[in-house]
Structure formats: C-alpha cells, structure tokens
C-alpha cells in the first residue's frame, strides 16, 4: 500500500517536470540578485565558494566526477573540472540535456552567458579573470558526456556510463529534494545515488532548506520536500554517508524574488562509508 503511494508520488513529480522551461529557470535563479558577483551575500557566489573550498582541500580526488541532476546549469562543475579528468553531466529531462549540449557544442546556443561564472571561479582560484577562456576549454575537454538519470531508480544511470568501481565523487545541487514526493523518497534517492559512488568517494550535496515549491517555468509550480538541517544530516547517515561538514546560508530578504519559497541553502560534504 505504502509502496503504491510512493510510486504515485514519484509519477506525480515526473508529470510536474513535463512543463520545465530551462531558459526561464536560468533566468529566475542564475541572474541578479541571486547571481550578483559584486555581492558577498548573493546565493550563487556562496555556492561557488563552498564548491571551490571542497574541491581544493586535497581530499577530493580521482578520475571521475558525476553531477546528478545537472539541469540546464554548469556552475556546479566549474571547480571540479580542474581536479577530475572525466566529468559526466546528467539530467532526467531531454530539454535540459539539450540546453547543456548547446554550450558544449556552440556557446552561442546557450540561454545564459556563463562567462561571469567562469571569471568568478578563476578569481577564487587566484587566476586572472581573463583565464576564463582556459577554464571554458578545460570544461569542454573533461566533460565526456551528458546522459539521462533517474534518482528514483535503484540504478539511476545506465551501467554503460560508469566504471564498475563507481565514480570517485558525486556533486548534486537542488535535485533530490525537488524531485522527491516526501522525506522517505529523498532519503531513498540519496541511497540510490550512493550506489554510483566508490567506497571512500565524496558526495558534495547542495540543496534547499524550508522550501515547499519552486517555479520551473511560467505557471509550472513544482512541489519540494521542505528540509531542515537535522533531516539532511539524518538522511545522509541513514543512506551510508559520513558527514564531514554542513554549511548553511540564509536567504536575505531581497533574494526572495517570488520564484520559490526557499528560506536557506545547505552545503554538505560527505564521504561514502
Ligand atoms: N542542478 C541544477 C541546479 O543546481 O540549478 C538543477 C536543479 S532543478 C531544481 C532539479 C533538476 O532535477 C531538474 O533539472 C530536473 O530535470 C531534474 N529531475 C527531475 N526528475 C528527476 C529524477 N527523477 N531524477 C533525477 N533528476 C531529476
């Protein structure tokens, strides 16, 4: 009975995503004020700083980095592409995979100009902002593929896409809580993606706190599991990860721009047991 309820919940989430509009989503979340590189308290610079720190502490390394639920965005692999020789981007929706392919095949075909993002991460790395063209070339060199994923499946990726030992590191941003009908499904999804990771591999997880919906396009209201910090920590533990660090960002009032009801963001660095 409970299983049927979860199945229905997952199917209802999939139906919500049919109206997802990559260009609108990018506009809502990846332009100022949420992506204001002049402001220290803007949400995107905060995320980029967390990822930069996590990838440069020396403990995250190996061959393969997999980003789970990339959506139409690239920011989440701008630090990792300097550490890993192979990066795999993944998303459930073909519209998002197509948007990403647009940037990799022809920069002009992107709905968003990623240049300020590339420049900002170069600055974090102590490089001159003009090194962004080298970072863009590096990203194009290491991203080997953009493939389908479904975190509700026990095996979220096609086995052909992954070496048998698993990935060395996973990144996932704003995916699991925004595709799960409830906390149990969120925790289960964390376990599913953990199967893609080798033992001792790292998970860098960014997500929304206290969010019950967001807009994936005009009139496309997508329900989200509202999470608190304690639930994130408990779900990680239950799914076989050891938490290294949890960082929390609280949204300033002027970042609440009417495209969701998020109150904060968490960043978790964890290792698979
Ligand atoms: N990672 C991006 C970011 O940081 O902005 C996008 C996050 S967006 C809120 C959630 C993403 O999850 C969408 O790109 C959506 O297509 C994807 N998604 C929807 N259902 C999914 C599923 N069952 N498994 C994996 N990803 C899914």
Automatic annotation (TrEMBL):
Any one biological process term the GO annotation gives: methylation
Signal peptide: none
Superkingdom of origin: Eukaryota
Pfam families in alphabetical order: NNMT_PNMT_TEMT
Keywords: Methyltransferase, S-adenosyl-L-methionine, Transferase
GO cellular component, one term: cytosol
PROSITE patterns: SAM_MT_NNMT_PNMT_TEMT
Gene Ontology terms, MF aspect: phenylethanolamine N-methyltransferase activity
Key word Cell wall biogenesis/degradation present: no
Presence of keyword Methyltransferase: yes
Record InterPro entries: NNMT_TEMT_trans (IPR000940), SAM-dependent_MTases_sf (IPR029063)
Family affiliation: Belongs to the class I-like SAM-binding methyltransferase superfamily. NNMT/PNMT/TEMT family.
Protein name per the record: Phenylethanolamine N-methyltransferase
């Amino acid at each position: 009975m409970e299983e049927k309820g979860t199945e229905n919940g997952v199917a209802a989430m999939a139906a919500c995503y049919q109206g997802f509009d990559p260009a609108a989503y990018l506009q809502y979340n990846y332009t100022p004020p949420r992506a204001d590189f002049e402001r220290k308290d803007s949400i995107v610079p905060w995320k980029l700083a967390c990822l930069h720190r996590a990838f440069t502490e020396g403990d995250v390394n190996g061959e393969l980095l997999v980003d789970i639920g990339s959506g139409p965005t690239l920011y989440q692999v701008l630090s990792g592409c300097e550490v890993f020789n192979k990066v795999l981007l993944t998303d459930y929706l073909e519209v998002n995979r197509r948007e990403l392919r647009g940037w990799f095949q022809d920069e002009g075909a992107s709905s968003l100009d990623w240049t300020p993002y590339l420049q900002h991460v170069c600055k974090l790395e102590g490089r001159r902002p003009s090194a962004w063209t080298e970072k863009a070339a590096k990203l194009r060199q290491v991203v080997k593929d953009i493939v389908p994923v479904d975190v509700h499946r026990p095996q979220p990726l096609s086995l052909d896409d992954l070496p048998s030992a698993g990935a060395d590191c996973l990144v996932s941003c704003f995916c699991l809580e925004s595709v799960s009908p409830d906390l149990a499904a969120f925790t289960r999804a964390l376990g599913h993606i953990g199967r893609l990771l080798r033992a001792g591999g790292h998970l860098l997880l960014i997500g929304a706190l206290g969010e019950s919906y967001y807009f994936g396009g005009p009139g496309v209201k997508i329900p989200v599991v509202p999470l608190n910090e304690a639930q994130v920590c408990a779900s990680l533990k239950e799914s076989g990860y050891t938490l290294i660090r949890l960082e929390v960002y609280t949204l300033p009032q002027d970042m609440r721009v009417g495209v969701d009801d998020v109150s904060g963001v968490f960043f978790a660095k964890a290792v698979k047991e």
